[in-house]
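INFO batch 0412 | record 1 of 1 | parsing
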Amino acid sequence: MAQKHTLYTVHAAMIAAAYVVLTAIAAGFNLASGAIQVRFSEALTILPFFTPAAVPGLALGCLLSNILTGCALPDVIFGTLATLLGALGTRFLRKNRWACCWPPVIANALIIPFVLTYAYHIPGGIPYLMLTVGAGEVIACVVFGQILITALMPVRKIFGEEGEE
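INFO prediction complete | emitting tokens
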């Protein structure tokens, strides 16, 4: 039992670390925030398809990324909430590899435009920002996410028993 808990914790920590690193890379190219954003790290939101440890790992990774990249407090809070909700939705839909990519897209497209408007005063209006944030999430979560699922399927046992559901 202790070994299973340790494996869960290690998976969550590794996923959080990978999320932070990928967000830092995207931030280096000015892609991690703003009206048009494609966080490479959001592709990791498919990992709850393989393991429940990805849910807290993604939330922690997003929280740390938002703090380390200097995001406004509402972004730290609601950006993390959007990622958490997306990860929970992915875990809930894990039986369908095509549907499981969409909860992070929907959560971010509905929540982040309000953060961009009210915390950063980015012009364009909520509907426009929903479209741009949603488009970036489709690229990261659906396109890159499906590529990642395909790449990880042959080695899914690395996630332990949870990955074999």
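INFO post-check: The radius of gyration is 15 Å.
INFO record closed
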